[in-house]
Design a protein that fits this description.
It is a single chain. The chain is an alpha+beta fold and 305 residues long. β14 and β15 form a beta hairpin.
């Protein structure tokens, strides 16, 4: 009778998978799925629900033609490398926000087009006819693009609110996008100034510079607060960490930088969260002062607790 030593038994066992593989056809490789893109992110704020909606995202090249226009390419590249991001490209995000107060559904901004905003709303469990109020933080095309679906309002049951200074500017600017998307709804608009109220717990705060009447909004419920900053700072490094770096889309560049410093300083002092329209999705985070600028800390789980 023959016997195996322990070493022989281990060697024989190790060879079995190889033998099986040799006698069987290779399994088909799994399909590539592509990168995942989230559609929405919902958090609680006191008695409110706040949902950020990804209404679009796109890659942009030659990025220093947009951010850091007043610094050298060497400085721009150095700051980018220090923060583990490329200096020649960026991913842009377009992030409207829905606030459910329990009695009213308030939508801030409408994205690039009606398909983008209605798809994002649907993914988050809402329909356009449920929107009670549409607030426009300002009137650049990527914020007013979803207002109209052809000749009809996308949000059939909504009232509309925007800053008075902002509407006055674009009413006299001969701007095609404004004339197509906003002007048909003029009779349904209400206008507010700094400190004006959208609804209980939602207050407008002037942050002019990006546009002549650009507004941020403070949202408060049950002792908790959040700042919706719209386009105050459009990138966590090139705009927030470096608040004095010029941004092509800021109409008053010095005014925009001053607004960034004032509003971001307040957010940092209060240690409250913020939502940025163009921040990396889901666009929710915190701010601290850092040197002569600020540091962005993305939300992880703080607002889930």
């Amino acid at each position: 009778m023959s016997t195996f030593t322990r070493r022989q038994a281990l060697a024989a066992g190790a060879a079995l998978p190889l033998a099986a593989a040799a006698g069987s056809p290779a399994l088909a490789a799994a399909d590539m799925k592509g990168a995942t893109v989230p559609t929405h992110n919902r958090i609680k704020l006191g008695g409110f629900e706040v949902t950020t909606l990804l209404a679009g995202t796109t890659k942009r090249d030659e990025i220093q033609s947009i951010f850091g226009m007043n610094v050298s390419p060497e400085e721009f590249a150095k700051v980018s490398e220090e923060n583990f991001i490329p200096a020649d490209a960026s991913q842009f995000f377009f992030t409207p926000t829905v606030v459910n107060t329990g009695s009213e559904l308030v939508l801030f901004d409408t994205g690039l087009n009606p398909d983008g905003i209605t798809s994002a709303l649907a993914a988050a469990g809402y329909s356009p006819d449920q929107v009670d109020t549409v607030v426009l933080t300002h009137m650049h095309g990527d914020h007013i693009g979803g207002l109209m679906s052809g000749d009809d309002p996308t949000f059939a049951n909504a009232r509309y609110i925007t800053g008075a200074a902002e509407h006055n500017h674009w009413s006299n600017a001969a701007n095609d996008r404004f004339n197509t998307n906003v002007a048909p709804l003029n009779e349904q608009f209400s206008f507010l100034d700094d400190g004006g109220s959208v609804a209980s717990g939602i207050t407008a705060m002037a942050a002019f510079g990006h546009t002549p009447g650009h507004m941020t909004y403070r949202i408060e419920s049950e002792g908790q607060a959040l700042m919706l900053i719209a386009d105050l700072a459009n990138h966590p490094i090139w705009s927030l960490e470096r608040p004095d770096w010029e941004v092509r889309f800021d109409m008053d560049k010095a005014g925009a930088a001053a607004s960034r410093r004032a509003v971001l300083g307040q957010i940092a002092d209060e240690r409250i969260p913020m939502i940025g329209y163009h921040m990396p999705f889901p666009g929710v985070g915190f701010v601290e002062t850092r040197g002569d600028g600020f540091r962005y800390i993305p939300h992880s789980y703080q607002l889930m607790l």
